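Need residues for this backbone.
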């Protein structure tokens, strides 16, 4: 085996990875629904503040839903193209299309809610100014109707108005009334100025910034979910390479197994061949030694016979003529 190349996952590991991605994607979608549901309930469809809060919740938590949908697409891409996987992929595409349209609709909904919210703020500020004017007119009426300084003091205490001090009560009544009326006018002008210059400006800027942020985010999310609405999602190149590698893992594993088995079989065949050749060589050498010993034995036997024959002739004497 080649130690430099990582061992690919088996087929069951790839299917397990697809199942884990699919389950975790569904968990993220459920989590997104739970987070948004806590802001949606109780329903207040005609309340601009409720509409703004719901829109913010849907947009701020949309990253969870987008991650879940991507994981489901990856799971179906890794898994085999079975009927259930294709049906789930079509369901995901339909939900992504609805999500894209929903995020696009959030833009005019947010603008409408902010417009009505600003209108409500203006109405509320106008009511506050009106209430300040009514309270100031009541103070003026009570101050003007007082006949004596003690009566003026009692009237101011009864309506929670500006109560004159002991030193002020020693002053002439017309002068005391004039100073109290001036104090009421200054306080009324100050309160109305604070309301009109600070509250309305702050509310307008806050709602405008929120609307701009939500509109840009909703548009980006609509484009993103529009891409995820396709059956065959165009993932970035690194993701495609990763998914293709995961999908090729079972085939690569089987090919690697076959290659390793062929290597093992070839090594065993070579080993058997070397063993057979060694045995054949030893057998040949043994046969050669046996043949050599036989030849040597036959030669010795011939020499012995010749010598025996020669010695027998010597004992008989020379041959007769």
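Answer:
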């Amino acid at each position: 085996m080649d130690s430099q190349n990582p061992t690919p996952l088996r087929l069951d590991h790839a299917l397990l990875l697809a199942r884990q991605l699919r389950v975790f994607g569904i968990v993220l979608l459920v989590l997104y629904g739970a987070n948004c549901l806590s802001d949606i309930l109780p329903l207040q469809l005609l309340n601009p503040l409720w509409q703004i809060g719901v829109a913010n919740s849907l947009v701020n938590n949309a990253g969870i839903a987008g991650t879940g949908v991507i994981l489901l697409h990856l799971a179906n891409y890794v898994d085999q193209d079975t009927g259930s996987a294709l049906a789930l992929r079509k369901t995901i595409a339909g939900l992504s299309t609805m999500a894209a349209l929903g995020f696009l609709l959030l833009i005019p909904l947010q603008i409408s809610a902010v417009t009505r919210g600003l209108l409500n703020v203006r109405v509320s500020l106008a009511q506050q100014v009106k209430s300040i004017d009514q309270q100031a007119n009541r103070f003026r009426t009570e101050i003007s109707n007082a006949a004596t300084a003690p009566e003026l003091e009692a009237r101011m205490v009864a309506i929670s108005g500006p109560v004159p001090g002991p030193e002020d009560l020693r002053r002439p009544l017309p002068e005391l009334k004039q100073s109290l009326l001036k104090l009421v006018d200054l306080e009324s002008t100050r309160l109305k100025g604070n309301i009109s210059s600070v509250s309305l400006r702050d509310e307008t800027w806050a709602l405008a910034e929120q609307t701009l942020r939500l509109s840009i985010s909703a548009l980006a999310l609509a484009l993103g979910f529009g891409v995820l609405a396709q059956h065959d999602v165009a993932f970035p190149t690194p993701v495609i390479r990763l998914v293709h590698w995961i999908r090729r893992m079972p085939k690569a594993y089987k090919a690697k197994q076959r290659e390793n088995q062929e290597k093992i079989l070839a090594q065993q065949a070579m080993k058997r061949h070397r063993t057979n050749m060694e045995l054949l060589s030893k057998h040949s050498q043994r046969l050669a030694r046996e043949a050599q010993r036989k030849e040597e034995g036959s030669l010795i036997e011939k020499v012995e016979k010749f010598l025996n024959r020669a010695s027998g002739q010597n004992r008989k004497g020379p041959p007769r003529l």
